[in-house]
Amino acid sequence: MAVPRSPDRWVFILLVVGLVGIGVAVALLVPAKVLGAEEPPPPVMATVVESGSCGSGMDTVEWDANGEKKKAKLDGCGHSKGETVEIVNTGGEMVSSAASVPVGLPVGRRLTALLLCMAALAGGFYAFLFRYAPLRAPAVLPAPKQG
């Protein structure tokens, strides 16, 4: 006679799946600074001093950096001379418009990782159920022996 399996294993499986889900959700929501990502440079207001045409050049901007006037090429074109733009200085010879720099976390990558983990867990759980499913009774039961 076979010993029936304990329902405690389902509790254990659900506990593991739940803990993994909570862990992945926490990893998805943790700020990037905690994970070691650098803080983006703060945006600065700059004035366009030279306007370049979009086909052949870039605009030149000037801004005040701690009392010192700095000039650099703007990674963009079509601004009029004297126009004020918000820029981000990344430290090179070229600055970028603050509107073109991504702000915040790359949630898309984290969400992709979360969905991949959940799909892997679901596939593994399905394989576990398929492999260790209890044997089912046959569709047609044999007639009992009389006698």
Q: Per DSSP, what share of the residues sits in E-state strands of 2 or more residues?
A: 15-25%
Topology as H/E string? Answer: HEEEEEH
Q: Please compute the radius of gyration using only Cα atoms.
A: 31 Å
Largest sheet: 5 strands, mixed, barrel
Give a written overview of the molecule:
The chain has 147 residues and is α+β, with helices and mostly antiparallel strands. The protein has 2 helices and 5 strands. It has helices at residues 8-29, 107-132, and strands spanning 44-50, 60-65, 68-74, 84-88, 94-97. Helix 1 packs antiparallel against helix 2. The chain has a 5-stranded mixed β-barrel with strand order 1-2-3-5-4.
Structure at a glance:
By secondary structure, this protein is an alpha+beta fold. Helices cover 33% and strands 20% of the residues.
Features:
alpha+beta, 20% strand, 147 residues, rod-shaped
